[in-house]
Each structure stands twice: as structure tokens, then as C-alpha cells.
Amino acid sequence: MGTRNVALVLLAAVLLQTLLPASSAEGLVRIGLKKRPIDQNSRVAERLSAEEKQRLLRGANSLGSGSEGDIIALKNYMNAQYFGEIGVGTPAQKFTVIFDTGSSNLWVPSSKCYFSIACYLHSRYKSGQSSTYKKNGKPAAIHYGTGAIAGYFSEDSVTLGDLVVKDQEFIEATKEPGLTFMVAKFDGILGLGFQEISVGNAVPVWYNMIKQGLISDPVFSFWFNRHAGEGEGGELVFGGVDPSHYKGNHTYVPVTQKGYWQFNMGDVLVDGKSTGFCKGGCAAIADSGTSLLAGPTAIITEINEKIGATGVVSQECKTVVSQYGQQILDLLLAETQPAKICSQVGLCTFDGTHGVSAGIRSVVDSGAGKSNGDLRSDPMCNACEMAVVWMQNQLAQNKTQDLILNYINQLCDRLPSPMGESSVDCASLKSMPDIAFTIGGKKFSLKPEQYILKVGEGPAAQCISGFTAMDIPPPRGPLWILGDVFMGAYHTVFDYGKLRVGFAESA
After folding, report:
1. 3-state helix, strand, coil in the chain (%, to 5)
2. Which of 39, 187, 287, 495 is catalytic?
3. Integer distance in angstroms from the first to the last C-alpha of the chain?
4. Which residues form a coiled coil (predicted)?
């Protein structure tokens, strides 16, 4: 991962919000959720998450035992994720966690984590301060794209709302070398998947809640509030559902493969017309740990073409050329140092050697922190730097300014979108088609305002397609991952007792 992308991950992590306290009522255990709306910079981290999901589903999550601990791929939870609070130990030590249906372990930082800065910046579990702690010591490791979390298993009580799960096996993380966790606002992860994908075959928290008779109904449900800035971010309910969070009845489909909450999905329709891609059936999972909606490249490309989406990088490049092209040319002709040009036009800051994304202080810059109130996007900075190089080459060939600008535009069209993202014109939302997914014989439609993610405000706002490509090969794939884009529109019930997943329109 390049240095600029690392900086973006750091900024995305810094922007994550803290959580709402948990509470219980009416026999249900309620965990209040809080989220940070998706922003330009955190999209990089979302792609990291998607890459890890793909690697995991391809089989990189095979479990084993050995001196280095068990291994499973971990997603990067940096983009528009939902958080809640739990307690570990007696008295309860508070931790902020992500509730993730795509993994099955609970882990939190350990007080015995001495050599990772990330641990010192988050709440750390202190076994010596808990009267219910039980030593385990079995090593464990969670590997992901840019690093790994390692530690060992311990046992203690875990508090969720008013419920206390006794003798819960969890991972004390003693190594968190990745930059991601250094500045993240969450402390750990609480997995809600099946034991089949649990590191070390540890019994998930959810299983023990049922086994210990803490809830009468072996069900949990998610409601995500997709209206940014409007009250709480959402709610996770253990033991049932809250009727105020959905309309009508749920459509249930059976779990076809335990591990993730996987089920069969039918045809995908664009504006009411069949794409034919999943007419014979496709596999899908409901995943609270994925922000977007991921599917096979062939159909995602078709969907993005139908909604008029274009590659984000190409669009940023064209924007730079149209708005700043002449200014960049003038600076080059005035023999301005090329490395300083993008900072002079306001798309980057200069760290002494080259441009970096505005608002992100480089390692070279030891001065006071800069205001982050008007951040420029890193793609714009990158596009500007590419344009400078291209224009330098063309000027060296004595090309006219008109020919140079036209040539750069052509190069923009050829740029791929490495983050798998596509952008649309925010003004064209009303003309975009509905996209529907057939589940349990019923069509679940997403309207443009539900599948388009708005980044920024006013004239500077961008609109990003909520559909991203991911190709999972057979026998596990092709596979669809219905993340927060879908679960935000449809209240989702995870029924462990009857091994089924249910969807109803969110209220």
C-alpha cells in the first residue's frame, strides 16, 4: 500500500466516531450504534476491507493450530461502520467494538501489549483487575492485508447491556503493529458469525448467550439509520426484533452454508428488467462488516453502466484537467518547480519533496497541525501529479497547449479505477433506475438515494455508486455480499434457532 493510501487510512480512522451506551428493555438487549458517514478518504479503507473479504472467501481463512496461533483474514473496518459498547471482566472494563456478522471472534487490546503504539491509544484489558478472569494462554493470530493482530486467549465475563456472559473465551491482543489500529476509534471486534470460522474454534459470544439462557429467543437483528446526522446511528437487538424498526413482514431464507450468514439469492433486476445473471440462483451473505454491496464484476459493471457511473479516477483526472489544466501549464511554462505545482493550485500540500493530500500532515512536517475543515481528496492530488508529469513530457515535445490538454483528457479516459469504485453525477439521481434483488421469491428494490453514497456537501459533493466488484471463484462463488448499503434499506434478522436470515423494509 502506497504512502498516500496509508495516510488516507489514517485519516479515515481518525474520523470514526465513538459510540452510544447499551441498554435493555422489554426483554430485549439493545445496543445503540453510532456511525460516521462515508467520506472521500475512507473509501480507500473500504477497498482494503473488500480485498480481505475476497481473500478470506477464497480460502485464506483455513484454520489450523501451531506455535504461532490460529489464522483468519480480518477486514479493515474503516468505512461507514457501526459501533457499540461492551464490558469485559468484573467489574466491567468498557470497550468500543464493531459487531460483525462476517467474523466470529471477540478480541480487545491487552494491558500486556507493550510494543505496539495502537494498544496505548485504546482501552486495554487488565486481567489483574477482574475477579472473574480465567487464564487460558492458547496463542491466536488474526491476519489482514496490512499487518496482523496477535495475542492469546483468555476467559472472562462479557457484558452486553444488562446481560453478563460468563466464562467467555476471547483474544487478548498483545501485538497491533498495523497503522490502521493505531488511530482507530474502536478498540476491538465482536464477531457474530458461526463457530465454523472462529479462530481457535472459540465459542462465539452469541452462542454462549443462548447456551447460558440469557435470552429466550435465539435471534438478533440489525437496524441501520442511513440518514447521516439524524439521531442515533442504529440499533442491534439481541433476543428478537423491535417492530418500530421495520414495515410489513420479514421474508426469510434458510442459511445454506454455516460460517457466514449465507443464503441463496435469485435474479438481479435493473429498472424491472432481468439481467439474467442470477436467474439460476446465486449465493449471497448478509454482512454488517462490509459497507458497500459487492458482486461479480460482470453484473456490477452492467449495473454501473445502467446508472451512468464512471471510474472515480477517470473523473477526478478530467476534473483536474478542466479546472486546473491551463493553470498547471502556465506554471510549467513559468519554470515553476514541478513538485510544487499541485500545492500551488491547492490540490496538495508540499512536504518539502513532493505533494501530499491536503489536510494530511506528512512525516516531514513537524509544525503545528493544520485545519482539516476543507480537506481535498487524495484522488485529486494524485490526478494533478499525473497531469504535471504528462504535461512535462508533452511540452518537451513542443506540442501546443490545446493538443496537450486534449491528449491529457484522452489519458484520463484510459485510467482504470484501482479502488473498484464508480462515480455518478449527483444531479442525475432522479433519472437512475431501481436495482432489485430477488430473495425468497420477493424483489427487494434499492432506489438511487439508497444505493448512491454522497460524499461532501454543496458544489464539491461527489456521488459514489454503492456497487463494487468482487469475483469469488467456484465452488464458494460467484457470491454477493449484501453489506450496509442493503442492510440499511432492509431491517435484517439473523435467526440462529431456525438457521435463517430475514429481510423487511426498514422503518
Report:
1. 30, 30, 40
2. 287
3. 40
4. none
d(CA 328, CA 331): 5
Q: What is the largest CA-CA distance in the chain?
A: 79
Low-confidence residues of the chain, pLDDT below 70?
1-27, 35-81, 144-147, 178-180, 183, 228-231, 350-378, 414, 416-420
* 500 contacts: CB under 8 Å, gap ≥ 6: 252, 253, 254, 255, 263
- Among the listed residues 70, 100, 156, 378, the single catalytic one is 100
Q: Residue 149 has what pLDDT?
A: 86
Comparing C-alpha atoms, which of 33, 40, 41, 34 is closest to residue 17? 34
Whole-number pLDDT of residue 36: 59
User: What is the reported pLDDT for 60?
Assistant: 38
Nearest to 450 by CA among 471, 470, 433, 462: 433
What is the amino acid identity at position 91? P
Residue 287 a catalytic site member: yes
Peptide bond before residue 459 is cis, with ω within 30 degrees of 0: no
The residues facing 350 across adjacent strands are 355
**Cell numbers that stand for 378 in this block:** 487524495
Residue 37: the pLDDT is 54
Q: How confident is the model at residue 438, as a pLDDT? A: 97
Q: What single DSSP character describes residue 247? A: E
Between CA 168 and CA 398 the distance in angstroms is 71
Decide: 316 and 379 in contact? Cβ < 8 Å.
Answer: yes
Residue with cell 497503522: 179
Cell 438487549 sits at which residue?
29
Order across the sheet with 268-270: list the strands: 273-274, 268-270, 435-439, 442-446
HEC letters along 388-438: HHHHHHHHHCCCCHHHHHHHHHHHHHHCCCCCCCEEECHHHHHHCCCEEEE
The reply to whether 330 belongs to the active site is no
How is residue 295 written as a grid cell?
Answer: 458482486
Tell me how far apart the alpha carbons of residues 168 and 409 are, in angstroms, rounded to a whole number.
58
Q: Cα–Cα distances in Å, from 362 out to 3, 5, 212, 372, 447?
A: 10, 12, 51, 14, 40
Say what the pLDDT of residue 291 is. Answer: 80
Residue 18 burial (CB < 10 Å; 0-12/13-18/19+)?
exposed
Amino acid letter, residue 109? P
